[in-house]
Amino acid sequence: MVSKRHPTYLSDNRIYTCSTCHSHLLSHDGIISRAFQGRHGPAFLVDRVVNVSIGVKEERMLMTGMHTVADISCKVCATKLGWKYLHAFEEAQKYKENKYIVEKAKVSKESIWDF
Question: TM segments (predicted)?
Fold first, then answer.
């Protein structure tokens, strides 16, 4: 049996993993906001994710206006997780640039215990 390796492991006590393959994705402390919407419901705005592939950039009309974004997917199992904001056309939305939307439905909470 071949085991799937996770390219990057997070050492924080509270992390979120891919709900499909449990690859580490983000630290609880890296969540900027929980008040965002993804394609499939509630989402996190985060400043850093690991073990993701970034797709093709495209202009997309979102609830807050036009943005240039690229979908992000899990590197291990290719599950679509959300997107990366590359450019915001409106000045009030510039704070999102180079940050990520990660859909809550696509991640699982995990705790790492030090014994």
Answer: none
Per-residue model confidence (pLDDT) at position 103:
97
Domain-by-domain residue ranges, the chain?
Answer: 15-109
Contact by Cβ (8 Å): 106, 80: yes
Q: Identify the sign of the CA torsion 86, 10, 76, 21.
A: negative
d(CA 6, CA 62): 32
Q: Which fold has domain 15-109?
A: 2.170.150
Determine if the pTM surpasses 0.85.
Answer: yes
Q: Where are the beta strands (DSSP E) in 1-115?
A: 14-18, 24-27, 31-38, 41-46, 52-62, 65-74, 80-88, 100-103, 107-111
